[in-house]
Design a protein that fits this description.
single chain; alpha/beta; Tyrosyl-Transfer RNA Synthetase; 3 domains; 19 helices
Length: about 425
Amino acid sequence: MKSVYDIFQERGFIEQITDEPLIKEQLAQGGVTCYIGFDPTGASLHVGHLIPVMALAHLQRNGHRTIALVGGGTALIGDPSGKIEMRRILTREQIEHNAQGIQKQLARYLEFGDGKASLLNNADWLTGLNYIEFLRDIGRHFSVNRMLAAESYRMRLEKGLNFIEFNYMLLQAYDFLHLFKEYSCRMQMGGNDQWGNMVAGIDLIRRVEGAQAFSMTFPLITTSQGHKMGKTEKGTVWLDGELTSPYEYYQYWINVEDADVARFLALFTFLPVDEVAVVKTLLSDARLNMAKAVLAFEATKITHGEEAALAAWKSSASTFGVRLVEDFLFPSSTIPRLDEGMDRSAMPILAKSRSELAKGIPAYELFQEGNLCVSRGEARRLIAQGGGYVNDRQLKAFDELIRLEDADDQGEILLRKGKKKYLIIQVR
C-alpha cells in the first residue's frame, strides 16, 4: 500500500528532505503530526500557495494529523526569505483580518476538528514572550555565523538586513519547538526558501528536547514558459471567490500550456496518477483540450465546490464551445459528460433534418451557420488551412460534405474550429 511519501514523490511535491529514511518510515506508519505556516500579509491565499495546501490535504487523507499555522505573530516583523527588500509592516488589525480570510479558505481543503486538522495562530504564543527569557532560553542555541550562511539572510546582506528580520529564524524555529512540545508535531513542510528556517527548528528541538524532527520542502512551481504560478496579465489568481471569481479561476486552469497539463493534474487535483499518466499519450489537440477541461473543472471544484465548478464549466462551454470528455478519459473525474443528461442549454447546437444530411451539407456552410465562423469566406479559409474538424477528423476540403453517416449513436455530429470552439450538429 502506498504511503503519503510515495504519493508526494510520484506527484512531484518533494524538493529537499532532511532524513529520507526517517521520513519514509514515519509516514508509512501513520499518525504523524505535520505543520505548514501561512503568511497572513494578504487578505487571501493565491494559486502560488496551492502546493502546501494540497500537501496538507494529502496528509490528512492518508491518516496523518495536520496543523495549518497562520503566522499572525511572525507577520508583525516580516519574513526575509526569498525577498530582496523588507516586507511591509502590517498592523495587528490588518493581520487579524487577513488571518480570518485564510482560515476560511483552508477549511475548503481540510477537515478541522475531532483530532483531524488544527488551525493555529502563532500570535497566541509569540506576542506574549518575555524578550529577556527568550534570548536566554532560545537565543543561546543559535550561532550567528550559521544564521548568516543561510540563503534567506545572504540574499539580504547586500541590500541590508535589519535586526527585526534577523530574529525571524529564531521565531520560526521556536514555532516548531512549541508545536513539538504542545502537539507532538515532528514534521514541518514548506517552500524551498524556508529550508534554513526549518533546519534551525530541527536543531532547536534536538538541543532543547533531545528529540528527532524532520522537514520537507516543495519545489518552486513555474509554468513550462518559466512564469510564476498564479500570475496572469490581469494580476494574481486568488483563492477567494470575491477577488477571483470561480469562472475566472476556471479559465486560468483551462488555458494552461499543453506541456503543463499532466504535471498540474498531478499536483493540483486528487485524480489517480494512473489516470494523469494517460495525458502523456494524448497526441491530438482535441483530447489535450479535454484534459485541460478536466484540470480546470477539478481544480475549481476543490477550491470553490462542485456547484461553482459546474457553473463555470457551463459558462465556458457557452462562450468558447464545449469540450467533450470521452468516457475512457479520467473516469474518476466528475466533470459532466454527454451521456449524463447534462444541461444542453450550455452547449452550442445546430439542428439539421435527416433529409438535409442524407444529401450532404458542405462543411463551410455549417461552420458559418453554426457561428463557428462569422462568414462563409472565413469558413472556407479556416478549413482550407487545416483548422476545421468533424468528429476529431481534420477536414480535407472546405466543401467536404457532412453526411448522415457522420452522426454517432445519439444522432450527433461534432464540428470543431481550431483547438477550442465546438458545435454539435443534431439530427432531427
